[in-house]
Write a structure and sequence with these properties.
about 70 residues
Length: about 70
């Protein structure tokens, strides 16, 4: 299980996600798996997440999954 600090560090690699948004995402979704499977609409329910951020988060996790498949 990843620590909260490791989680936050990974999330801030996503364009438009800084410390505040990373903290809000961690609080809302509780696990990285839940966050990675969230839809844009689910992400928009998180305080501080707007549509461009939701799109960037979804794209990040899509690319991460594709990279794992192709490795």
């Amino acid at each position: 299980k990843r620590s909260a600090a490791a989680w936050s560090s990974k999330l801030t690699d996503i364009p438009t996600v800084g410390e505040k948004r990373a903290a809000a995402l961690m609080k809302h979704f509780k696990t990285l798996r839940a966050l990675s499977e969230a839809t844009e609409e689910e992400l928009l329910l998180v305080p501080g997440i707007n549509r461009p951020s939701a799109e960037a988060i979804c794209q990040y996790f899509r690319e991460t999954k594709e990279n794992r498949k192709n490795s």
